[in-house]
Structures are given as structure tokens and as C-alpha cells.
Amino acid sequence: MGSPLAPASNGxxxxxxxxxxxxxxxxxxxxxxxxxxxxxxxxxxxxxxAHRLLTDLAEQGxxxxxxxxxxxxxxxxxxxxxxxxxxxxxxxxxxxxxxxxLAEQTGESAYLSALRGRExxxxxxxxxxxxLRSHVLHExxxxxxxxxxxxxxxxxxxxxxxxxxxxxxxxLTIRWGEAHxxxxxxxRLAAARDSxxxxxxxxxxxxxxxxxxxxxxGAGRPRSALSLTGVRSRFTDERIPMLGRxxxxxxxxxxxxxx
Length: 259
Hints:
Layout: H1 15-29, H2 36-43, H3 47-59, E1 63-65, E2 72-74, H4 76-89, H5 92-106, E3 109-116, E4 119-126, E5 142-144, H6 148-156, H7 160-169, H8 173-176, H9 182-195, E6 198-201, E7 208-216, E8 222-231, H10 240-256
Antiparallel strand pairs: 1-2, 3-4, 3-8, 4-5, 6-7, 7-8
């Protein structure tokens, strides 16, 4: 699941937006990096454009190119900038204690995923004690809103106009299949609004289920989500409500830290 972002049209996209797509693609490609051709394909850019952007970013230290493989990777300047930004945006210190508590109480793996644009990115994780794991989530992985339980939980609690705009302009079926049609996603969102928590019934990887609850900022907007993932045998119809209530309780506690 560590593949780059899904293809995106470059029609009318600004240079800054293209740079953002390139950097996120390299981030999703993880340690092995990505070729110029792969970056171009996954960003929906002509190959010469992708190469020019990558070369310019390398000159600024924002990306590196492996001399042996020719693959591009995130550069050292991003680490330095990220370290400076961490003091303002890092929410994982408090969350890690919450994740450890969730994992200990349930035996499942617990995660914190943050809202970034129209995606969620996993910021922190804590493995549970149950030996069978889903292996869908890991730190750094991104999903579009509406895909996986964290993205469902956040999308369900965005202002209605923003959620409607997203659904009207996003076709998740291109990459994620008919199980992510607008009708299907709307049905899961309605269920999440009714219960307070979102459920991913094995739609990203067969047999791997997830439950998530949104964490809100001081203005009442969803900024992240706590989730638990595991195999279907552990996420029974009887147990899911208990997991959901536990997530809601911990998400409420994290939300209060912003108020």
C-alpha cells in the first residue's frame, strides 16, 4: 500500500500544486524512491515537466537522486524544514499515549491519521498484541478522504458544503473500485454520522477491517482521526460498537487538548 498517489490531471494546476504532488508522490514511494517516469505518471504530468521539477527541487535540497538507481527521494532540506514545523503541528506526543492505551485495551493496532488537503496521512501507530494484523496502515501512508476508516470519519464530519464538493468532484472508483462509488461512500458516511464512528469493512484489503473516530480542533473541525485495524474475525458485529465507543471516548479526550 506504499504506492504513490493516484494519477491527477495537470490541467490548470499551478506550479506550487505540481511541486506538492511531486513531493507527496516521493513521500508515498517510501525509502526506495521513484523514477522520473513513475513520478510523471502518478502526478499526471508530462515526463519533461516532472524531470524539470525534480531537478529544480534537487538544487534546493528538497529531493535527492540515488546515483546507483536513478530514483528520486525526499531530500535533507525537507527534514530540516519539518523539524522546524514540528513544534507547531506535531500532535503525536499526546496521541502516542492514547494509541498505546487503545492497543493495550483491545489487542488491535492503533493509529493516528491527520487531514492533509483531501487526504489522510498516518502520523503514528502502536501495534496491538493480537498476532494477526492487517498491515494496511503504517506511518506515512496516505489515502483519499472516503477511503479507509480514518478518511471516512473525517469526511463524515466536515461541513456539509465541503463534503458535498468533495463527493461531486472526486471519483474514487478509478483506483479503489465500485465499492467506493459515490452511492456506497455516501451510505458509509451516513452510518458514520449516525453512530459517531466510521467502519471500513475490508474494502482496502480483503479481510482487513478498521474503525475510526474523528478528532476535532478548537473550531470544531475534524483535524485527524484515531483508528483501530485488524482481521475480520476480531471485528465482529458484536464487538465493533464497543471499539467505536472506545475510540470516540479517546478522540474526545484528544479534541479537548485543542480547546
